[in-house]
Amino acid sequence: MALWGGRFAEDANKDVALFTESVSYDKRLYKYDIKGSKVHSAMLASCGIIPESTAKKIAVELDRIEKRIDSGDFTFTAELEDIHMHIESALIDALGDEGARVHTARSRNDQVNLDVRLYLRDEITSIIDGINDLMRALVDAADRHFGIILPGFTHLQHAQPVLFSHHLLAYVEMFARDAERLTDCRKRMNMLPLGAGALAGTTLPVNREYVCEKLGFDYVSRNSMDTVADRDFMCELLGGLSIFCMHVSRISEDIILWSSQEFGFIELGDAFCTGSSLMPQKKNPDIAEIARGKTGRVYGDLVAMLTLCKGLPLTYNRDLQEDKEPVFDAVDTVRMLLKVFPPMIATMSVNRDNMLASASDPALMATDVAEKLVELGVPFRHAHHRVGAFVKWCREHNCELNAVTLEEMQETIPEATEEFLNLFSPEDSVKRREITGATGPKNVSMQIDFWKKKLS
Q: Residue 391 CB: number of other CB atoms within 10 A?
């Protein structure tokens, strides 16, 4: 008979037990369940609700159970449903009535909420550390390849020359915001739910503040009904992980394009690529491609969680048992991405000549010409029109923008001087952009130094 089965005349149907169990996946919470139970029983003893000697025996036996699970010497069965019931049942088997006191003044509703918060609190810290490793790898690559120029793109068409380092640092900015989002999520998550009971709290004189302090939470939940019904902290985490994966997918797309023969900008180390089962010559950027694919998987976890919660009345409903698998899956997916991405970035070699050749199309400096006109007092919209006419003239005459004479340029840009003929160097174009946030070498160098210090 299940620990909750006093009201029932018969055991659950075997298939029902398999359908309703969650221990197959929530057993990963065992250390947190034991940690919470030890503090909870110590609190009960401090409040005079259970004997001090009982709390000490419970703590000792919980340590034994943890070691048994650590070593694999612990049997999990569908009949006991979840990790909470397994640990409590083992405790009762060992201590009898004294073990049965551990669940005083709590419900599985607030207990599972506690376990998940403790677990995710640690996981978020680990994920943030991994994101910082990824940022360091990108900053190191930006430093190592400083000065290399490639074309920047809009609409996947060549737009303007930029430093390769500037491009990499754009992703550092994105990942920094991802880490900030997760840090913020962790703050809201760090609330003690234990003591909310099934939904209405308890009549027993417990000390929730004691448990809050011992478990390192920032504050005690203020509304017991909200506490047991709440899963928005998990939705928020999945949202943050989804945005992170979106950024990983975007840099993956750049890596895939850059490593193609059409671009030929970079090459990844052999250890982070795979071959073809048919074509011996192939070297595929499969890590980046799989990362791009796994982004959709994490999005699915977010949608599953939002859909799970959207129609639930207060307070706890058994639907919420389904909250853990998408969260566990997203956490595991992101953790694996963060294992392979930083070392992959570290192996990236760069074809400087191919990048510069692609960035040397003089059409990429058309905006430089327009802005030179602005310096001479021409309104930008007029300058834009004249340079557009100049580009059209060059296309019609099948010549490059930097291959015309001054007289030919003056047919569409009457204000042009000899100086205008020297505006088509990608190196000079980049150097002219030294405002804060731009791709100028001095500014990018400052950004590299900034991130080195911040990430150290």
A: 16
Assess whether 167 carries a catalytic annotation.
Answer: no
Q: Do 363 and 404 contact (CB within 8 A), yes or no?
A: no
Catalytic residue among 71, 155, 277, 456: 155
Dihedral angle, C-alpha 169, 173, 175, 176, nearest 10 °: 130
Please give the backbone phi and psi of residue 120, each rounded to the nearest 5 degrees, phi first: -70, -30
- For residues 122-139, give the mean pLDDT: 98
Report pLDDT digits (tens) over 33-85.
999 999 999 999 999 999 999 999 999 999 999 999 999 999 999 999 999 99
Mapped onto helix, strand or coil, the DSSP state of residue 191 is strand
Candidate list 24, 276, 382, 397, residue with the active-site label: 276
- Residue carrying structure tokens 């915001």: 177
**Can you give the pTM of this predicted structure?**
0.94
For residue 155, indicate whether it is catalytic.
Answer: yes
Which helix (H) or strand (E) covers residue 171, if one does?
helix 164-189
- Asked whether 254 and 261 are in contact (CB, 8 A), the reply is no
- By the 8 A CB rule, do 54 and 45 touch? yes
Report the candidate in 162, 166, 160 with the shortest Cα–Cα distance to residue 142: 166
Superfamily of domain 360-455: Fumarase/aspartase (C-terminal domain) (1.10.40.30)
Omega cis (within 30) before 315? yes
Calpha distance 91→38 (Å, rounded): 12
140-191: pLDDT as tens digits:
999 999 999 999 999 999 999 999 999 999 999 999 999 999 999 999 999 9
User: Cα 11 vs. chain centroid, distance in angstroms?
Assistant: 43
CATH number of 109-203+216-357: 1.20.200.10
CB-based contacts of 351, cutoff 8 Å, min separation 6:
264, 265, 266, 267
Identify residue 267 by its one-letter amino acid code.
Answer: E
Q: Where are the domains of the chain?
A: 5-104, 109-203+216-357, 360-455
Does the pLDDT value for residue 24 go beyond 70? Answer: yes
Write out the two tokens for 446: 């400052």
Spatial distance between the Cα atoms of 361 and 357, rounded to a whole number of angstroms: 7
**In this structure, what token pair is assigned to residue 288?**
């980046």
Beta strand segments in 81-165, E: 149-154, 157-163
CATH class belonging to 5-104: mainly alpha
